[in-house]
């Protein structure tokens, strides 16, 4: 059991032990370097303390995206992809969506999720 206590300013703090942490849009108002530092710290904490963190981010920078183990891609409330980060491109390639060489994966996923609900693809879970 844990309790999230609101602090003065944009931050929040966790009081007590936890097995799961849910964070929504933690990058709002932050630059990509700060977002990377926060996600990297969260990742290290999760590995050491053996807990799960679910974070929603809109189009993270490539270096931040690469910190994630698993990806859940939603579109209009539907799960389009749920699985390992390193399998997301092969999955969409098997559905006919290829990421251009110079495009970041997160940017590509933002675009492809719009088309994926219209196409008849099988969701990866």
Brief sketch in words of this structure:
With 125 residues, the protein is α+β, with helices and mostly antiparallel strands. The protein has helices at residues 32-49, 62-65, 88-94, 105-116, and strands spanning 3-6, 12-15, 20-24, 52-56, 70-75, 78-84. Helix content is 33%, strand content 25%.
Task: Walk me through what this model shows.
With 125 residues, the protein is α+β, with helices and mostly antiparallel strands. It folds into two domains: 19-68, no CATH class; 70-125, no CATH class. The chain has helices at 32-49, 62-65, 88-94, 105-116, and strands at residues 3-6, 12-15, 20-24, 52-56, 70-75, 78-84. It has a two-stranded antiparallel ribbon. It has a two-stranded parallel ribbon with strand order 3-4. It has a two-stranded antiparallel sheet with strand order 5-6. Strand 1 (3-6) and strand 2 form a beta hairpin. It is globular and about 45 Å long. It starts with a strand and ends in a 9-residue tail after the last helix. Mean pLDDT is 79; it is low at 1-11.
Please state the average pLDDT score.
79
Domain module count: 2
Number of helices: 4
Q: H/E order of the elements?
A: EEEHEHEEHH
- The main sheet orders its strands as 1-2
What is the 3D form? globular
In the predicted model, the low-confidence regions spanning at least 5 consecutive residues are 1-11
Radius of gyration, rounded? 16 Å
Portion in helices = 25-40%
Secondary-structure class: alpha+beta
Q: In what range is the share of β-strand residues? A: 15-25%
What summary fits the major beta sheet?
A: 2 strands, antiparallel
End-to-end CA span? 28 Å
Q: Count the strands?
A: 6
């Amino acid at each position: 059991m844990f309790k999230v206590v609101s602090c003065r300013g944009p931050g929040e703090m966790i009081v007590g032990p936890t097995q799961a942490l849910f964070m929504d849009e933690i990058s709002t108002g932050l630059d990509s370097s700060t977002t990377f530092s926060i996600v990297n710290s969260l990742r290290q904490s999760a590995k050491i303390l053996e807990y799960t963190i679910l974070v929603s981010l809109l189009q993270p920078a490539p270096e931040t995206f690469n910190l994630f183990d698993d990806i859940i891609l939603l579109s209009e409330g539907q799960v389009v992809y749920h699985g390992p980060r390193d399998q997301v491109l092969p999955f969409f390639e098997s559905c006919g969506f290829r990421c251009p060489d110079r495009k970041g994966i997160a940017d590509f996923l933002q675009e492809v999720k719009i088309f994926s609900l219209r196409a008849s693809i099988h969701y990866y879970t």
